[in-house]
């Protein structure tokens, strides 16, 4: 496909015609790589004007004037070659690829191909080998740490979401890039509902793409680069080009199989001094606030039939780690490709299976991808098409706090296990001591049983594809029509088992809340239709100026329908049906649609071979904006100046490329659907937990929608200035690509809080102005390059600094998300996403000013009026270090990923403090102490509070209250912890079997690899709780907030074999 | 030729974009109606009112009125029992009363007014006043005149409680003035969760409410009060309450739904020694309606706020009795009688005061199918003490405090603030000189010695978004009508 387009491009660029002729030389141009013919190679006469282009079979035929002695063969991506003419009338040529050449071809907006040196903005292309090297089950994790300016993380759960943030977060909702596959946008919905009680990560749809189908991935970061793609591209574009068959290629079969084993990467380090109790030793407690561990054998747990079990009162090493088992994932990839004179095709099948580390066969995920792609060319007409079917099945476990109807969740139960109770001793959940009746604590449930009782089942079918037709209307003018469709259907079943206790049993007597049981069904259908029509012309305006112009229109319709029904409280345990209730199911249904029309134009000017200017213009009309204000226009301009071409004398063996870039662009972004009008809905009055839902006794009701619609909504606009420098030295052995950008996004569309006394709690408005400034640098080095040995290094560096420049009205702070008393806010003048926690109240004036006020119970008084800022979620910088040694047929590559700075909220930390498992809680041996530098309140004198030196200790049985954020809110500060990490992301050792052996097997290629992913993780002091990448808050801005009893991430070892037949 | 083709293509493109303008007008959720009627908005407004007044306001009232206290082996409501409720706690009261109940009622009221549906106008307006009255007594100042206007006024001015009360009286008078018109219309049905369309009861409810608000300042309103109690058109048999709850998830009494169905332990609310000691001392038969027996078959309470007590398992102390089908009381007939008794007592008419008091105690016993006769007899434990006005008030408010249990606990909190009854004990409940039924300061109080909470703090959800929200006032600051 690439080569085909390139050939058209080259053909169009060629000027001049054959002149007088003497003799004819014919031949075939093939690639050294795959020995296949290359169509579209430019064959030029040296010493005379004129030239031809090789046909689809790589053959050419050229008339040679008498004065011509040599031919020049050139093709984008290959080393230019000059061949002296000999007597023979046949001249076959083999071209070698230009690995890191100046002529790297990249895909740009609207599916065009350009030489990278002509681009006026930063563009990074990641090739298939890099993406699939480490057997990642989804494509984007294969790019993690490899591209400057692109921050990628994966939630860790099987089938879990991948978050991709390009050049920082700039929007309050929807910061994910637009994904374009072979010129057509695909959906990237994420059906995950983020709740603190019970959530399961259903993954985002870009994870559906089979990594093995990908030929390359180009990442467009700046506004100027993405302007042409319209409002959905405001947060960058990731353009994926899939592998294609080649014309005139015999049947080619490849197989790629991999198997990996995984274990838990990081578990919380717990204190090892104090054991079960709260604050005295108690059999039924779920925390470690008890006495010091003695190692003595003693009674523990509940008394059943008058007897308790015995165990040593000692610390259990690696308790949580040992709870988990070894996970496994495998991939099988098969592709069959071939081509005839006019067409080529590729069929691929991908099969991925994952089993998580939870004991038993509980968390599982499988994905099957079928894809058929092809293209044809007949004269002026060419076409390409693809059809993909993806099927996903998953059994998933819940994270969060658990609920009264759905039951407990695993991670929560693991965290609150006293450090002296061996989790594995609970494995036999039918044992009379371990069952629900007599489980040792009233406040938690047996984790081994919880995972069996509660879970979700996912089933997803998706079909997406496209048809792309193009016709050459006239020389240099082409009409292209593209139609893409993406349809998926998701079913999620949600089960929570009934838990009841035998009357008279320990749990029943002590009032442990039973679980009433829950069953839910959710059906969701996503759809997208995208049609683009465009005209593309290549013109040579003068001898020196070329123009490539594109103009066209785009229609896009997206939407989803969903039906969700659940019953809370099952009549009959174990029967999961919407009929199994004494009430009625709670139903919600949604039907969301949006349409967008776009008209666009792009003009690429080239002056000689050193100045390139691109202008892009686009106007969108969106259904999500008010009918009378739904049109918005934006544009981008960028230029590239290749200094080494402008001043030829600069160019040498040592200096290969010097290029400067500048780009300025603007992109608009529309709203989410249904934000412009007011409406009513069925009455559901929320309680602190639960609701009062009408109808009651047959009386139904309607409540006004508490969010005010907005008839003056405007689109969100991003403007960005980008400057860049691209250099290559010493035969391309050293390359440095630097970018600086300053991006301002204003008029973000948010659902802003309204003081409820207005009768509404939110209103949809345009707010703010957020700045993201940053530097991106990518350095490539080839320190050693010899016949047998090559050493490649790469370093990429990203620094993004965000700043909230303005919000709305007089509002200086906007709350993005909260968990307990930790707020995640946008505050004017601060980076986007700062954390605010309760703080102790200090004496404001007088002789004791600045001292902490302590309450009668020894705990500090909490300032009721203001909170304290404790860092923000953005890292100071991110760096990726890649290294590859290639020796003969061996290659060893490693990738190190370093994120410095930033904070995140950790409920895991919070809960560890609450239950006394956090290492910090052993402070002062848990002996009574006094809050330092403190005073106590004495009373009001003439309306002014007087103070005295504090004499109130934190007594021994209040130590737990001191550390627990819920009873001493100042401790919420401890739940915002450092986000820094260093990860050894990938280690891949590959061996390509010698051709001699391979050919004996009648095969073309066999590569064998050993792979390790996330082998090492370093977190700073202050985070001995959880992998900062773990999140169960989906994959957008709220996931930057942190985690809420998220599942663990994994370390993976494995191997793969790749065979080409 | 080529040019014509190009122009043709562009023209087609342009045309299709223009023609499609209509196709972009799809931005309405097909599942959500854009119109509503009073018939649908009134029950919504009442249900929203009940969700908060019968939910967290009842919870706060129950703990601060020392009916209940936080269980020692769990910790859901500690902040209430140690008086550390912050500006961000219990914000949903504000959110759902203003953003839910009051606005729905306002919409219903305005639609009903336009359409002359006075039988909807009356209940919607009276219910609104009721919600405002609870808010003003909880927060001391609230937005009234400038509220509920959406983005026409995003920063409504707050008004002093005294001024709000005057406006509430006016709103009640306006509603009452429409009663003849309302009664003349065909009756509305069960969408009136309180009185099933009985407009005469709504009028009684309005007048009782008016009496209650006037009683915040007896001296200033004596004439109006005397007129109301003399006329006597006040709640006397029927309670203003919502009874539609059933024992199903999300359909139950709000406090029950939250405390018993949704928390991971339903043992949080325990008998406070303050109330329990009073009931047991007086052998009050309602004990069984308010508290459960412990595992040993006895009754045991915790000292108010003693959530760090050790050595007592959850089943060794008495839990508060709650039921899924418990009504949410707005104003009970008993409360109406207690109010009247207090008014007569302050007017100085002892006979009327005693008569209303006896009726009130009888009603509050019969609510639980118990007989009050022996208690109000001259020798009974709850006999009306009428030697002085203060004695009468103490008798009335003390009995009102018992009657408020599992009913209108928040109202008892207001009454204690207003009258100082029950008296605050100077010793703890374990002290031999402790008098049963006297308030004790929480064992784990965060306040200066002897202080009790008097109000909720101005909610953060408002102060963050409304520049006119008053500056913070501490939780133990008394209001103008507090004693």
Q: TL;DR?
A:
The complex is a heterodimer of chains A (1061) and B (483). Chain A is built from 12 helices and 55 strands. With 1061 residues, chain A is mainly β.
Descriptive keywords:
heterodimer, A: 1061 residues, mainly beta, 22-stranded antiparallel beta barrel, 5-stranded mixed β-sheet, 55 strands, globular, disordered N terminus, B: 483 residues, mainly alpha, two-stranded antiparallel ribbon, two-stranded antiparallel sheet, 19 helices, 6 strands, 49% helix
Number of strands of chain A: 55
Q: Give unreliable regions of chain A as ranges.
A: 1-21
Spatial extent as radius of gyration of chain B? 26 Å
What is the 3D form of chain A? globular
Question: How would you portray this structure in words?
Answer:
The complex is a heterodimer of chains A (1061) and B (483). Chain A is mostly beta strands and 1061 residues long. Chain A is built from twelve helices and 55 strands. Residues 1-21 of chain A have low confidence and may be disordered. By secondary structure, chain B is mainly α. Chain B contains 19 helices and six strands. The interface between A and B is large, with 114 and 112 residues.
């Amino acid at each position: 496909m690439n080569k085909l387009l390139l050939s058209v491009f080259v053909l169009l660029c060629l000027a001049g015609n054959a002149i007088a002729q003497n003799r004819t030389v014919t031949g075939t141009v093939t690639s050294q790589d795959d020995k296949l013919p290359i169509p579209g190679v430019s064959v030029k006469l040296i010493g005379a004007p004129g030239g031809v282009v090789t046909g689809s079979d790589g053959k050419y035929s050229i008339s040679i004037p008498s004065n011509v002695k040599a031919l020049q063969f050139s093709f984008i991506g290959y080393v230019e070659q000059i061949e002296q003419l000999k007597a023979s009338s046949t001249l076959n040529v083999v071209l070698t690829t230009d690995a890191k050449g100046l002529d790297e071809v990249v895909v740009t907006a609207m599916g065009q191909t350009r030489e990278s040196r002509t681009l006026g903005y930063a563009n990074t292309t990641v090739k298939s080998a890099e993406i699939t090297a480490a057997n990642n089950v989804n494509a984007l994790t294969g790019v993690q740490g490899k591209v400057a300016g692109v921050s990628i993380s994966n939630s860790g759960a099987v089938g879990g979401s991948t978050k991709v943030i390009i050049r920082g977060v700039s929007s309050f909702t929807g910061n994910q890039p637009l994904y374009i596959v072979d010129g057509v946008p695909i959906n990237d919905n994420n059906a995950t509902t983020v709740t603190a009680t019970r959530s399961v990560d259903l993954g985002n749809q870009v994870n559906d793409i089979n990594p093995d189908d990908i030929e390359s991935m180009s990442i467009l970061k700046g506004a100027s680069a993405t302007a042409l793609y319209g409002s959905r591209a405001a947060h960058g574009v990731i353009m994926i080009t899939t592998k294609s068959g080649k014309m005139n290629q015999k049947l080619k079969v490849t197989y790629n199989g991999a198997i990996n084993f995984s274990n838990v990467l990081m578990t919380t380090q717990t204190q090892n001094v104090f054991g079960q109790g709260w604050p005295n030793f108690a059999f039924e407690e779920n925390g470690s606030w008890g006495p010091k561990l003695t190692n003595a054998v003693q009674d523990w747990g509940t008394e059943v039939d008058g007897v308790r079990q015995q165990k040593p009162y000692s610390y259990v090493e690696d308790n949580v780690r040992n709870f988990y088992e070894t996970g496994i994932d495998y991939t099988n990839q098969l592709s069959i490709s071939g081509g005839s004179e006019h067409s080529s095709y590729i069929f691929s099948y991908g099969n991925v299976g994952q089993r998580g580390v939870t004991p038993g066969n509980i968390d599982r995920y499988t994905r099957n991808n079928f894809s058929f792609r092809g293209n044809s060319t007949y004269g002026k007409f060419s076409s390409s098409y693809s059809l993909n079917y993806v099927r996903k099945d998953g059994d998933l476990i819940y994270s969060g706090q658990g609920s009264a109807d759905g039951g407990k969740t695993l991670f929560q139960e693991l965290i609150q296990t006293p450090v002296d109770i061996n989790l594995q001793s609970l494995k036999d959940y039918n044992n009379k001591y371990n069952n629900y009746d007599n489980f040792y604590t009233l406040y938690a449930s047996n984790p081994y049983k919880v995972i069996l009782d509660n879970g979700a089942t996912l089933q997803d079918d998706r079909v997406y594809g496209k048809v792309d037709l193009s016709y050459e209307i006239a020389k240099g003018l082409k009409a292209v029509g593209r139609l893409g469709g993406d349809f998926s259907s998701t079913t999620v079943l949600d089960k929570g088992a009934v838990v009841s206790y035998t009357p008279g049993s320990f749990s029943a007597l002590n009032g442990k809340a039973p679980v009433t049981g829950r069953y839910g069904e959710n059906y969701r259908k996503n759809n997208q239709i995208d049609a683009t029509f465009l005209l593309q012309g290549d013109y040579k305006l003068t001898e020196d100026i070329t123009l490539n112009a594109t103009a066209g229109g785009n229609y896009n319709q997206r939407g989803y329908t969903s039906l969700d029904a659940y019953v809370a409280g099952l009549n009959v345990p174990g029967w999961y049906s919407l009929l199994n209730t004494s009430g009625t199911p709670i139903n919600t249904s949604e039907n969301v649609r949006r349409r967008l029309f776009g008209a666009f134009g792009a003009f690429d000017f080239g002056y000689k071979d050193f100045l390139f200017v691109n202008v892009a213009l686009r106007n969108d009309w969106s259904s999500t904006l008010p009918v009378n204000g739904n049109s918005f226009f934006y544009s981008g301009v960028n230029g590239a100046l290749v200094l080494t071409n402008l001043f030829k004398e600069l160019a040498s063996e040592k200096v290969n490329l010097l290029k400067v870039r500048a780009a300025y662009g603007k992109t608009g972004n529309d709203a989410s659907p249904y934000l412009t009008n007011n409406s009513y809905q069925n009455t559901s009055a929320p309680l602190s937990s639960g609701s009062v839902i009408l109808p009651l006794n047959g009386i139904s009701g309607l409540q006004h929608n508490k969010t005010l619609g907005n008839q003056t909504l405007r689109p969100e606009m991003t403007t960005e200035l980008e400057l860049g420098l691209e250099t290559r030295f010493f035969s391309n052995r050293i390359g440095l690509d630097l970018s600086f950008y300053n991006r301002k996004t204003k008029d973000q569309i948010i659902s802003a809080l309204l003081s409820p006394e207005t009768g509404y709690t939110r209103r949809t408005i345009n707010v703010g102005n957020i700045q993201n400034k940053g530097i991106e640098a990518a350095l490539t080095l080839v320190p050693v390059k010899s016949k047998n040995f090559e050493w490649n290094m790469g370093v990429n560096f990203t620094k993004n600094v965000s700043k909230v420049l303005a919000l709305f009205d007089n509002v200086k702070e906007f709350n993005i998300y909260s968990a307990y008393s930790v707020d995640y806010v946008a505050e004017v003048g601060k980076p986007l996403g700062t954390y605010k926690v309760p703080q102790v109240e200090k004496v404001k004036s007088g002789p004791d000013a600045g001292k902490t006020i302590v309450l009668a119970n020894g705990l500090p008084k909490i300032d009721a009026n203001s909170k304290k800022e404790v860092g923000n979620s953005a890292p100071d910088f991110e760096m990726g270090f890649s290294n590859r040694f290639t020796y003969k047929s061996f290659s060893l590559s490693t990738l190190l990923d370093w994120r410095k700075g930033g904070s995140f909220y950790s409920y895991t930390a919070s809960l560890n403090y609450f239950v006394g498992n956090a290492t910090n809680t052993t402070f002062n041996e848990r002996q009574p102490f006094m809050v330092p530098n403190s005073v106590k309140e004495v009373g009001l004198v003439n309306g002014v509070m007087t103070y005295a030196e504090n004499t109130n200790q934190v007594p021994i049985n209040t130590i737990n209250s001191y550390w627990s954020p819920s009873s001493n809110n100042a401790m919420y500060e401890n739940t915002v912890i450092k986000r820094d990490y260093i990860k050894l992301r990938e280690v891949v050792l590959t061996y390509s079997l010698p051709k001699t052996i391979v050919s004996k097997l009648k095969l073309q290629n066999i590569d064998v690899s050993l792979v390790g992913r996330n082998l090492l993780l370093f977190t700073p002091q202050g985070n001995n709780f959880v992998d900062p990448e773990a999140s169960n808050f989906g994959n957008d801005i709220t996931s930057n907030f942190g985690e809420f009893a998220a599942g663990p991430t994994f370390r993976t070892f494995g191997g793969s074999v790749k065979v080409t037949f | 030729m080529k040019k014509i083709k190009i122009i043709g293509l562009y023209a087609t493109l342009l045309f299709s974009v223009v023609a499609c303008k209509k196709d972009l007008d799809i931005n309405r959720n097909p599942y959500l109606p854009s119109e509503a009627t009073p018939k649908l908005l009134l029950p919504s407004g009442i249900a929203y009112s009940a969700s908060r007044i019968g939910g967290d306001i009842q919870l706060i009232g129950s703990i601060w009125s020392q009916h209940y206290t936080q269980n020692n082996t769990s910790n859901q409501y500690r902040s209430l029992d140690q008086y550390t409720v912050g500006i961000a706690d219990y914000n949903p009261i504000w959110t759902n009363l203003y953003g839910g109940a009051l606005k729905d009622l306002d919409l219903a009221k305005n639609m009903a007014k336009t359409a002359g549906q006075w039988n909807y106008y009356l209940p919607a307006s009276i219910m609104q006043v009721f919600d405002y009255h609870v808010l003003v007594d909880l927060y001391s100042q609230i937005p009234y005149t400038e509220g509920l206007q959406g983005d026409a006024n995003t920063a409504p001015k707050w008004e002093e409680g005294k001024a709000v009360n005057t406006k509430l009286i006016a709103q009640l008078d306006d509603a009452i003035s429409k009663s003849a018109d309302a009664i003349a219309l065909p009756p509305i049905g069960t969408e009136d969760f309180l009185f099933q369309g009985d407009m005469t009861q709504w009028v009684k409810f309005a007048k009782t409410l008016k009496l209650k608000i006037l009683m915040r300042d007896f001296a200033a309103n004596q004439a109006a009060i005397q007129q109301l109690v003399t006329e006597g058109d006040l709640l006397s048999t029927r309670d203003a309450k919502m009874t539609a709850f059933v024992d199903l998830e999300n359909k139950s009494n709000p406090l029950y739904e939250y405390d018993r169905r949704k928390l991971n332990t339903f043992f949080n609310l325990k008998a406070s020694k303050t109330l329990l000691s009073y009931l047991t001392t007086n052998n009050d038969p309602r004990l069984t309606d308010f508290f459960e027996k412990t595992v040993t078959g006895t009754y045991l309470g915790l000292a108010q706020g003693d959530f760090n007590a050790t050595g007592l398992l959850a089943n060794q102390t008495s839990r508060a009795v709650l039921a899924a089908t418990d009504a949410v009381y707005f104003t009970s007939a008993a409360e109406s009688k207690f109010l009247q008794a207090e008014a007569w007592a302050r007017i100085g008419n002892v006979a009327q005061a005693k008569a209303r008091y006896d009726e009130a105690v009888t009603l509050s016993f019969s609510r639980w199918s118990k007989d009050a006769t022996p208690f109000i007899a001259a020798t009974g434990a709850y006999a009306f003490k009428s030697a002085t006005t203060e004695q009468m008030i103490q008798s009335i408010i003390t009995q009102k405090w018992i009657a408020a249990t599992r009913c209108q606990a928040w109202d008892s909190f207001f009454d204690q603030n207003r009258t100082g009854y029950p008296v605050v004990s100077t010793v703890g409940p374990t002290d031999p000189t402790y008098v049963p039924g006297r308030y004790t300061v929480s064992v784990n109080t965060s306040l200066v010695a002897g202080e009790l909470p008097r109000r909720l703090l101005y909610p953060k959800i408002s102060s963050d978004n409304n520049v006119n929200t008053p500056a913070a006032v501490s939780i133990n600051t008394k209001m103008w009508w507090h004693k």
